[in-house]
């Protein structure tokens, strides 16, 4: 279990890719400032932001 938490089993390339994607989504103002009552609304906001990031790259 500790190996899974530390990321020792993953390659550095995949870890870097995931970290960059999370940082890009944090930079999105729509995601960073959301305080929704329902989880599905937040999920849709994150999905839309991810789609925009994907289309721009």
Task: Give a verbal description of the structure.
By secondary structure, the protein is mainly α. It is built from 4 helices and no strands. It starts with a helix and ends with a helix. The mean pLDDT is 76.
Key features of this structure:
mainly alpha, elongated, 57 residues, single chain
Q: Main beta sheet: strand number and arrangement?
A: none
Report the end-to-end length measured between terminal Cα atoms.
34 Å
Report the order of strands and helices: HHHH
Number of helices: 4
Whole-angstrom Rg: 14 Å
What portion of residues belong to β-strands? under 5%
Q: Structural class of the helices, strands and pairings?
A: mainly alpha
Give a count of the beta strands, DSSP E runs of length 2 or more. Answer: 0
- On the 0 to 100 scale, the average pLDDT is 76
Tertiary shape: elongated
pLDDT < 50 stretches: none
State the share of residues found in helices, binned by percent. over 70%
């Amino acid at each position: 279990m500790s190996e899974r938490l530390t990321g020792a089993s993953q390659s550095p390339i995949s870890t870097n890719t995931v970290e960059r994607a999370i940082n890009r989504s944090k930079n999105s103002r729509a995601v960073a400032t959301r305080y929704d009552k329902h989880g599905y609304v937040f999920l849709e906001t994150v999905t839309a932001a991810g789609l925009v990031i994907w289309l721009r790259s």
